Amino acid sequence: MRNWEKQVMLIGAVFLVTGCLQGGAPRPKPSLEEEPVLTQSPEASHLQLRLIGPESSDPEVPARAELPPYPGKNEEVTASAQEIVFKSALQLPEPAKGPLFLAWDERALGPAIQNAYYSHRIVDSLNRPRGELSRDSALHDRASRRWFLSLSRLFADRPSDADPSDTQILTLDLQLEDGSRVEYEIRFKAVGPLPPVQNRLVTSAAPGDALAWSRAASKQGWPLVREEFANPSARPVALWVRKAGDDSLELTSNLRASTFEQNGNLPPVGPVVRDYWTTARVHVGLLRVVRTDGAEDLALRPDDDRWVRLVLRPGETLTLEWKLVPGSGVAPCPLPATQPRVFRWTESVVTHRCQRMNREAECLDTYKTVQREQTAMEEWQLDGAELSGVFHREAMVTDPSEVFSAPQDQPRMLTLQKGIGQVSLKTGRGRVAKNAWACMGLF
């Protein structure tokens, strides 16, 4: 073979090998970590993120209708080179209404987006991280040629856990068809539906001791109603409570006296039992807030209809005690003491004596004055009481992020059941006396 033929064959072999390397088996796809992030990324505003509800025929994907204008109605969005910020909080719907999706067109950046990933983290109002960083793949809807992710899924399908004071941070990691990658950071606040705060209301039973009932109301306050409020969510809520309407009640006690009577120089007669009644106006004048880390007492006026705002922490259960206290002008009544009483009187004792004189009996009566004395125990006790009247209370739940003077001023609120209404409690015999005691008040 000639030399020039050898050179031609050698050059052809080189081209053949080179062609196999370039046009044969496809080049292995580099991992995301190996792919470069574009230094000249398209502006974040080009992504034109949309908030879309679910498709009616398939609630797992965003609605496939034409994309709404950007930005959407009532949305205030700012965008820089790599960051998108929603200025107003995103309203997450009730789970029954389906999720809220964040969607963008697959060609929003020019070259088609081939893969999309996102990571989610949360920082609180003090810029402290909460929870764990999570990373997941965004989903692609071929029918609408859009990428999307479910905002509800960020909160494990519990949108009521979204705390409006937290900042939600999404990092989008997008791989384009030309092999480049871009990253954008999305910041927003989310407000979920108000969590279903659980309320258990218990009307207090009348105590068995009428005196203890009266003394509790006159001193530290007697709990008319105890109720629990439990927050099952992972976010705080504001609990608003107040008295509603006239809460004037009446506590009537039955005072039983067991005494002895003496008429002149006669022996005492007894025991003589008499019943007396006394009454006092009372009202709910003390609200005791009991938490696991302590208790707080809040004074309430008789006509006080102000709202009391309490923050119910995530997962917390607190107890409220609505306590009765004396009304204006109610006097403290001393209870007569149970004590011995000494009675003294005199009696004439006749001695009849007979003797026989000259076979005849002769009788003679002699009289002698004797001093008598008897100690008798006179007892006084409250052996019955009745409480009657009306008490109402109102309770509402709102977001705690903004402070208002009343829950009705806030855009969203949840009304809980009202108070117990008619009150009728009785201990012992209740009121049985017909005669009024000299002192009207509490013992």
Structural description of this entry:
This protein is mainly beta. It has 2 domains: 34-191, Immunoglobulin-like (Sandwich), CATH 2.60.40.10; 198-442, no CATH class. Helix content is 7%, strand content 49%. It contains 2 helices and 28 strands. It has helices at 3-23, 210-218, and strands spanning 50-52, 77-79, 83-86, 90-91, 101-105, 113-123, 129-137, 139-141, 146-150, 167-176, 181-188, 190-191, 198-203, 222-230, 237-243, 249-261, 269-291, 294-299, 308-312, 317-326, 331-332, 339-357, 360-391, 393-398, 414-415, 421-428, 435-436, 441-442. The strands form 6 sheets. Strands 13, 14, 16, 17, 18, 20, 22, 23, 26 and 27 form a 10-stranded mixed β-sheet that branches. The longest helix is centred in the N-terminal third of the chain and has 21 residues, at 3-23. The model is unreliable at 1-39 (pLDDT under 50).
Descriptors for this entry?
443 residues; mainly beta; 2 domains; six-stranded mixed β-sheet; 49% strand; rod-shaped; disordered N terminus
Give me a quick take on this structure.
Helices cover 7% and strands 49% of the residues.
Instruction: Estimate nothing, just give the exact number of structural domains.
Output: 2
In total, the number of strands is 28
Rg measurement, Å: 44 Å
| Main structural class | mainly beta
The mean pLDDT is: 82
Cα shape:
rod-shaped
Per DSSP, the total helix count is: 2
Helix content: under 10%
- Low-confidence stretches are 1-39
> Could you tell me how far the N terminus lies from the C terminus, measured between alpha carbons in angstroms?
133 Å
Percent of residues in beta strands: over 45%
